[in-house]
Fold:
Amino acid sequence: MRPAGREASQPRDAAGDYRQKTAYEVSRLSSRMKGEGHPAPIGDPTSGVVLVLEQPFGPRTLQALKLSLQAVGLHQAYVTYESTGLLAHEIQATEPYVLVAIGAGAANYIDGIDYPLVRQPFSTTEPGVWFHWTRGTKGLRIPALAPALDDDAAKRRFWLAFLTLRDLGRNS
Structure:
């Protein structure tokens, strides 16, 4: 029996709570990044797919990455950058099931944050091959994007490894 004047409480929406928590945390991190002169991340932090882009990057690199993500059906993927100093916090806030390092610099940076429970470091993996980064997160290393913008051989290496993400786009 309920006390007078009290209605049955609505069941909690766990997915909605997760999205709100993640959006709040990533918003705080994004503000810190911008305050320190770094670009803001792009994409949906609740997508479950986080890509870490190595330096150097600029508008042309970001546009190429957006087009590549659209081509594989992952236009919602969350893209952040190495060297912001906040990557470990971003990974904890987004809790991705897929973490992608774009470029050797990003792979080394991810390895350098000493994230707990890592099963295999990014820098020891082959580009374009899935591996278990942690128990709940698959990892993928992709060659750098910036050189691929002007070199056909680098473009082929990047694109062949990037196409590994295609199956994720089909499942989302």
